[in-house]
Amino acid sequence: MIYGDRDLVARSENLTEFVPNVEVVSLDCGHRIQQEKPEETNRAITKWLEQQNRPCRRTG
User: How many independent structural domains does the chain possess?
Assistant: First the structure.
């Protein structure tokens, strides 16, 4: 789960009950994480994918 530290939407306090083994990443931004921090968001997603042993392929 990627959260923005300045997001006005509250974080789920019981996320781990619904998503076992969830990994949480916090970025210094608001609610529109992908638009505000695109490079950091991509790095967090790519790192997670690599940890899952799933190759991350870019197209284009």
Answer: 1
**Interval 15-47: pLDDT, tens:** 989 998 899 999 999 999 999 999 999 999 999
In a domain, 42, yes or no: yes
- The range of the structural domain enclosing residue 9 comes to 2-51
If you write DSSP's letter for every residue of 1-60 in order, what string do you get?
-EEETT-SSPPPTTHHHHSTT---EEESS-S-HHHHSHHHHHHHHHHHHHHTT-------
Name the pTM for this structure. 0.76
